[in-house]
Amino acid sequence: VPPAQVRIVEVGPRDGLQNIPDKISTSTKIELIRRLHETGLTAIELTSVVSPRAVPQLSDCRDLLGHSFVQDLLSSPRQQSPEAGLMRWPVLVPNVKGLEIAVQNGVREVAVFISATEGFSRANIKCSVEEGIARAREVTRLATKAGLAVRGYVSCIFEDPYNGPTPHHAVLHCVKSLLDAGCHEVSLGDTLGVGSPANVHSLLEYLTGHDIPITRLAGHFHDTYGQAVANVWEAYRYGVRVFDSSVAGLGGCPYAPGAKGNVATEDVVYMFQNAGISTGVDLTKLAETGEWVANELGQINSSRVGRALLCKT
Ligand code: HMG
Ligand code: MG
Fold this sequence. Notes:
Elements: E1 7-10, H1 12-18, H2 26-38, H3 61-66, H4 68-75, E2 80-81, E3 85-86, E4 91-92, H5 96-104, E5 109-115, H6 118-125, H7 129-145, E6 149-155, E7 159-160, E8 164-165, H8 168-181, E9 185-190, H9 197-209, E10 217-221, H10 228-238, E11 242-245, H11 265-274, H12 283-297, H13 304-309
Parallel strand pairs: 1-11, 4-5, 5-6, 6-9, 9-10, 10-11
Antiparallel strand pairs: 2-3, 7-8
Helix pairs in contact: 2-12, 7-8, 9-10, 11-12
The protein binds 3-hydroxy-3-methylglutaryl-coenzyme A and magnesium ion (MG).
């Protein structure tokens, strides 16, 4: 991505919805993806293919992926957007079973995920960090062989809900393992949303000081302590050009109790636009989509920018 551009990976349909207890219909999820697509977003994480017991909300992933609108997205020629490169529709998978279901449905990019810490790893994917790495490596190998692109996530980059603060070297080990396995980029997940810009700076300094190219890193900041927009900016200043965010600031993980949603896409787009940095996203349409989905789900619209633009502040 050229210097004056950033790529936003909208994770609303996956991270944004996975922790909402009330059942959301598949058609509402499809409508969300459709509206997000219309804003000009070029990367949208569609859903996850995980154990239905682990995340009941996304247990309709086969129906969603098989829907004609999603099939059209997945089967469209790999469009190059002048703004942000390849159009991407990743799907989160924890294991080979998830990969197989994704492939059967025409998915061309998957995201694998591990934790830098033992506690969250055991809670979220029922295995140790090393077992998680081995699983992610195998999924990445098979996916790559099948011609898919693979994105990686490392969770708990700053803190684990059970183990406390995360040492930088644990994050480095995970990032290195995912890149060596063949992930095209690794998204750094502040799962609990506790980090602040000084923590972002210090971790990026450590990772790049240990030969991790900044161009292979993305930022995934939850906003529990209200630091997420500042964290995105700090990472941008350090050279990161890919950021995950959720429309209306939706998001959370069933295995990270108390953690709030992702940084709101509206807030990220507003911040970059004001700095003359292109995201390719229509902010008005995005704000309307945020308000629509918040109403539809009975959730608070957590985007300050969205609420301000729609005069709801
Ligand atoms: P396990 O219980 O050890 O797995 O869970 P298992 O292989 O024994 O399977 C248990 C059951 O799940 C079986 O069904 C499997 O068939 C089924 P049963 O025979 O009992 O009826 N199953 C699956 N079904 C559909 N798709 C699959 C799949 N795999 C197994 N892929 C496992 C281990 C990893 C499967 C489970 O713990 C799991 O699915 N975990 C995922 C939890 C999750 O999705 N968490 C949220 C996403 S991560 C996140 O939010 C963080 C992130 O945003 C970054 C950040 O913020 O830090 C990415
Ligand atoms: Mg997350």
